[in-house]
UniProtKB/TrEMBL annotation:
It comes from Kwoniella heveanensis BCC8398. This is Proteasome assembly chaperone 4. It comes from the Eukaryota. InterPro entries: PAC4 (IPR032157). One of its GO terms (biological process) is proteasome assembly.
Length: 168
């Protein structure tokens, strides 16, 4: 083993996706990825679109176009860790922190660990209560659809980032 093998191999990426529904009533999603050896630390938050130019602090994989003002920036709003399956042991996951009654990050981190089996997944969601409430006056009627669209776009973006990193 050489000293070069011990060098830290950490890269960060982030991007935003516009509101999945037209009309601007729903928030845009912000994705941040910290890629380490066999580990993905993923943060997902929301923001509102602005007419400003793209954020000058965009990472290696930032998107251009309209800027987004990020809402609350909580690292551990809803945080889970999932370990990929090994042999006949299925994907396992555990919640690290939950801020409410719902646990959206736990099953989502398990699905991401299945999709990216060579990586441990740390998933932190910082989403408004309108998307995470199970019931009540804060519940957005399209919340479950928005979360499905967000998860699909997150998986696609992660796949693109990881394939781009493997190609370079």
């Amino acid at each position: 083993m050489s000293i070069l093998d011990l060098e830290p191999q950490i890269k960060t990426y982030h991007t935003t996706i516009p509101s999945p529904f037209p009309g601007g009533g729903s928030p845009a999603f912000v994705f941040h990825l910290t890629k380490m050896v066999d580990t993905l630390v993923i943060w997902v938050g929301t923001g509102t679109s602005t007419a400003a130019a793209s954020d000058p602090h965009q990472g290696d994989s930032g998107s251009g176009g309209t800027g987004v003002v990020v809402g609350e920036k909580k690292l551990a709003g809803d945080w889970s860790v999932a370990m990929p399956s090994r042999g006949n042991i299925p994907v396992t996951a555990t919640p690290i922190y939950r801020s409410g009654a719902s646990d959206i990050a736990l099953p989502m981190s398990q699905r991401l660990a299945r999709k990216f089996p060579s990586n441990q997944i740390h998933l932190s969601l910082s989403l408004p209560s309108s998307l995470t409430s199970q019931s009540g006056p804060n519940l957005d009627p399209y919340a479950s659809k928005m979360l499905l669209v967000m998860e699909k776009k997150l998986g696609t973006w992660l796949d693109d980032v990881l394939k781009g990193q493997a190609a370079s």
